[in-house]
Write a structure and sequence with these properties.
The chain is α/β, with parallel strands linked by helices. Helices cover 18% and strands 25% of the residues. It has one domain: Glutaconate Coenzyme A-transferase, CATH 3.40.1080. It starts with a helix and ends with a strand.
Length: 213
């Protein structure tokens, strides 16, 4: 497990509060589920129809033994968990009953627009529930590497990939930095472990304000 990926998951967990209903996307966000304990009082939602998602099973059991999340990964059920159909699940999302969505990203731009479903050079499988979650969650947190495999910035002046949601992102957590949109302005608020301000400036093509604590 990459230490940088886990650092992003740990930072995302800091944004979650007791009583929050939280939906985690595929990729780095799924790591957050393994950090949450029943004592945290956080209620995990998955769009395929489960509320009260627990961490991955430790006994190696598969989909025939446990429920699965939207990424088809086996999960456990915490006490009080409930199951429902996809229509009810999406009614919860569209009705803004999900407090926080933590999702992966391919690009986020200066206007808080998100692109996260069409990977260049890969077959298009469809946006899935990402569009509903990005628009319907009360708070949207994006966890992603700061640059793509070629080294290009993923925090950009304007999205070039198909947009998932407009002006929806509240917080960006990368392996280098944490950005928050404050009064609509992209703002650097933290550096991640091992990162420097000079590195963040060099690897970010979007304009941003700096309010480091």
């Amino acid at each position: 497990m990459s230490e940088r990926r886990m650092n992003m998951a740990k930072r995302a967990l800091q944004e979650l509060k007791r009583g929050d209903v939280v939906n985690l996307g595929i990729g780095i966000p799924t790591l957050v589920a393994d950090l949450i304990t029943p004592e945290d009082g956080i209620v995990m939602h998955t769009e395929n129809g489960m509320l009260g998602v627990g961490p991955a099973p430790k006994d190696g059991g598969g989909a025939m033994d446990y429920p699965v999340n939207a990424g088809k990964i086996p999960v456990t059920a915490l006490p009080g968990a409930s199951y429902f159909d996809s229509a009810d699940s999406f009614a919860m999302i569209r009705g803004r009953h999900v407090d926080v969505a933590v999702m992966g990203g391919l690009e986020v731009d200066e206007k808080a627009n998100l692109a996260n479903w069409a990977v260049p050079g890969q077959p298009l499988l469809g946006v899935g529930g990402a569009m509903d979650l990005a628009s319907g969650a009360k708070t949207l947190i994006i966890t992603m590497t700061h640059t793509d495999k070629s080294g290009a910035s993923k925090i950009v002046p304007s999205c070039t990939l198909p947009v998932t949601a407009l002006q929806a992102v509240d917080l960006i957590i990368t392996d280098l930095a944490v950005f928050r949109f404050i009064n609509g302005e992209l703002t650097l608020i933290e550096l991640m472990p091992g990162a420097t301000l000079e590195e963040v400036r060099a690897k970010t093509t979007a304009r941003f304000a700096e309010k480091l604590g």
